[in-house]
Amino acid sequence: MIPSDTLGWGTARNCIREVYEYGIRLKAEIGADKVFDFSLGNPSVPAPPQVKDAILKALEDPTLHDYTVAPGRPGLRKAISDQLNARCGVHTLPEDIYVTCGASAAVTCSIKGLLKPGEEAVAFAPHYPEYPVFTRTAGGVFKFCSLRREDLQMDVEALEAVLTEKTAVVLVNSPNNPSGAVLNEESLRKLADCLYKAQERFGHPIYIISDEPYRELVYDMSDVPSPIQFYDNTVVCYSYSKSLSLPGERIGYYAVSDRATDREKVFASLAGAARSYGYVNPPSLMQRVIEACLNLKPDIRTYKENRDILCGILDEVKMPYIHPDGAFYLFIRCPIPDAKEFCEHARKYGLLLVPSNDFGITGYARAAYCVNGEMIRRSLPAFRELSREYGLC
Ligand code: PLP
């Protein structure tokens, strides 16, 4: 018998892909120059040239195509733990690192490895739309709570209201997809404080899974604080999809904090989850490439410029939005409560935006600005028309 949940996930249309695919049809119909496609989070900045050099070098290794050990090559795990320790002031060992096929695999394995069927995972809305799928496939119950609506920082009351004795996992994603918001240190300290108290109250550990694929993509601050700096029971999930522009190459990792309760058991359980999903080892070529390119800094000038152009346009047409500090997404506040209706109207002007409904929040539209800057500039008249339609300008 075909299970209804997997069948449902396989047939339901992903909200982002749906808009993107509509865009492909629209471009063919009316011409690409009349479509302003802000749908997909595909990095527009090319991978650094060192990536190509590292690929060519790796091709000379006759063992390149062999299996590697399941958690990844020892040299790469050491390099990752050294980097994480230097950055976050923790003391992980290579044995705390498991290299995965991107952040998706890292987060799925972490959820499955930390949550028993029937237990709850809590995310903050707006949240990445795959979290409910990842949670339910592990037999868990997905819940979410709101951040403060005005600035998308921690709302402790909302969090406390959603925590129960069944809470096993809290999912944090900063810089955030879909809003571009970055949780500040104060928010993370409040979160840690609240979870330490909840652990006391419920008498069991609650783990943060910190999904950080956009960690490097911040514009007005020097660094992004990570929950691992403030809360012991943290697993960091990372990806090179965005920072090194390698989304198709499927490479990332999870790292268990050296201060986590039952650290070794946690690592073993997450490794068991990887095994149960059939993630034997991530691509061997990419493991070598990342080992060589780990400390490269992404060139984020293009994204910053794009952000500033888009913010300038929205300011000019008086369309309100949440000012994004990181990632490459911006959240427009819809002038009507129904985001789907708003995004539908935007299509009339060739503007492709993703409604916020599947991100656990209503009334916003996501614009991904990892696109051609020229296209953003040309979208001004379309945004102006849309704004006029709602009497904003
Ligand atoms: N988590 C978040 C918040 C994301 O935005 C994405 C990709 O867009 C992922 C996880 C998955 O990343 P990866 O390509 O590394 O699997």
**Mean of pLDDT:** 96
Percentage beta strand: 5-15%
Q: Return the structural class.
A: alpha/beta
The CATH architecture category of the largest domain equals 3-Layer(aba) Sandwich
Number of domains: 2
Q: List the secondary-structure elements in sequence, H or E.
A: HHEHHEHEHEHEHEEEHHHEEHEEEHH
* Oligomer status: single chain
Could you name the CATH class of the largest domain? Alpha Beta
Strand order of the largest sheet: 2-8-7-6-5-3-4
Determine the CATH superfamily of the largest domain. Type I PLP-dependent aspartate aminotransferase-like (Major domain)
Amino- and carboxy-terminal Cα gap: 56 Å
Based on CA atoms alone, the radius of gyration comes out at 21 Å
Could you estimate the helical fraction of the residues in percent? 40-55%
Task: Note the overall shape.
Answer: globular
Number of strands: 13
CATH topology of the largest domain: Aspartate Aminotransferase, domain 2
Task: Name the descriptors.
14 helices, alpha/beta, seven-stranded mixed β-sheet, Aspartate Aminotransferase, domain 1, four-stranded antiparallel β-sheet, Aspartate Aminotransferase, domain 2, binds pyridoxal-5'-phosphate
Please, could you describe this protein's structure?
The protein has 393 residues and is α/β, with parallel strands linked by helices. It folds into two domains: 135 residues, Aspartate Aminotransferase, domain 1 (Alpha-Beta Complex); 245 residues, 3-Layer(aba) Sandwich (Aspartate Aminotransferase, domain 2). 40% of the residues lie in helices and 14% in strands. The chain is built from 14 helices and 13 strands. The chain has a seven-stranded mixed β-sheet, with helices on both faces. Strands 9-10-13-12 form a four-stranded antiparallel β-sheet. Strands 1-11 form a two-stranded parallel ribbon. A hairpin with an 8-residue loop joins strand 12 and strand 13. Helix 3 crosses helix 10.
